[in-house]
Sequence to fold (562 residues):
Amino acid sequence: MVTRSYMSRREVEQQRFSIPVTVLVPVGAVLLQVLLPRVFAGLAILDLPFVVTLFFAISRRSPIAGTATGAAIGILQDVLTGQPIGVNGMAKAVIGYAGASLGSRIDVENTTTRTLLAFGFSLLQSVLLYLIERRLLGIRAYHMQWLHELLRAAANTALALPVCLLLDHARHQE
Amino acid sequence: MQAMDFLTQYKNALFLIGVLLSLAIALAVQVRSPLDAAQPDGPSVRLIRMWAMTAVTPLERVTHAIGYSVGHGWSDYIALRHVRQQNKDLQQQLERMRIEEAAISEDALQGRRLQAMLGFREKYVGSTVAAQVIGASGSEQSHILTIDKGMRDGLRPDMPVITQDGVVGKLRDVFPSTAEVLEINDQSSGAGVILASIRIRAILSGTLTGRVQIDNLTADSRIKPGEQVLTSGGDQVYPRGLPVGVVESIAPDPDHQPYTAIRIRPAVDLDRVEEVLVITGMQPEMTPDAQHDLTTAAAQHAADLSAERLPGIYDEQTGGAAGASGATGTTGTTVTPAPAVTPHPLPAVHPDRFTSGSTPPADEMTPGGANSSASGQQPQPTQPGATK
Fold:
């Protein structure tokens, strides 16, 4: 017997978000990312803008929208963190594109799928940041610390699951 | 027609490539060299950052105010246990530090005389602006703080930022009402330092992981963990002699052989900075207050030296010579520098029944009875160096 996903292809293509959600959620994520480490420095390991980028990408399933959202969130993050503008912008644009491309092919409502996606894309972002810093900007002191990046991926995955569940309620079903 | 088909078919990938190319060009424009130290960003990038900071700052201020109220409500009204004891301990510590200050004031004066002879142009902190930290970068890749003072308060890029514990960093971007502080543990940060006891100059920099290290020194057996690291003043940013931290570990640097990676533990807890001082002005002379403090300490030290040279006068309350213990200041006692002591005779080397204090009080003596001397139990005299 063939198991059917509870979400049909028609529903998949009709997921939309209101303009306030589209604007305020990414901005709020970047602001929280800036403010939370003031409360506890260890929270800097989390990347809330990454989680939001991934959620919008896999939900909208439009590579162009995913790329644009990722680039915008990344640029805003760069502006507020004092980094050269474009470092996070490029990494998150790729995450948005890849997430949206995958989102149109697999069922991303499943918790297991989301876990794997969040973990894998977090590692991909670490690799992208490494390439940008090391190869593009020529920062030779930039080293990839795999254990730390695995921890970061695990932390981002743990954050992504409840955030995605929360943001699921913000969808417009047409 | 084929071109249209191509564009339609690969529009997603083309859009991604376009975005990446745009951002790569933007990056290339920003990281052009050489960079102006006072203006790390170009005018357009600085404008973008200023707009973003202007938009974000009110939210940061509100969040900081709420956190500050809650935190200080707790610490000011609830967590006041042991404050009296703490106050007492601090007063004792202050007294000890005054004594230590008196002990080193002579050396300081001598140093100033020598500097004057050599024509050395020392710079002292002239004016400071107190500011509160209202935000942080929130990223492990950059260590930047946002403070609630800016250009309107007289701040300029590259001004040093300190706390009472030591160096925090320097101002990076200064906006009208806020400013960004580049912490010393940021990877793009640097400072000229000197190892306090062995007087080796070095360059301190931040690492990607938010640590502080010196990586321009070759292996030297004199560099040991615990060595104090101070600013050298050679970078023309930080005034000389500010505490930066202590050497935590020394290990070969695999990336820069034969240099060593000397890891520094910052004097300031950079993750928990709340209030900072921005040094807005330097001057060739000490401030009147600092000059007064130094003169007072020097006078005190002279008095202590005179007391040391006088015949020994022992005080049972302090258990030693006031001047002598004042000069050392390491016993941890509550010694005052020049107390009004009651003279007592020196303790006898070989006490006997004629020694002062060996006779019991009159009301304890009985006519014809044995006293303590007769029974052979002689009281032990107070040791000169005994401390409480």
About this structure: The two ends of chain B are 99 Å apart (CA to CA). The mean pLDDT of chain B is 75. The helical segments of chain B are 2-9, 11-30, 43-78, 83-118, 288-309, 322-328. The longest strand of chain B covers residues 124-136.
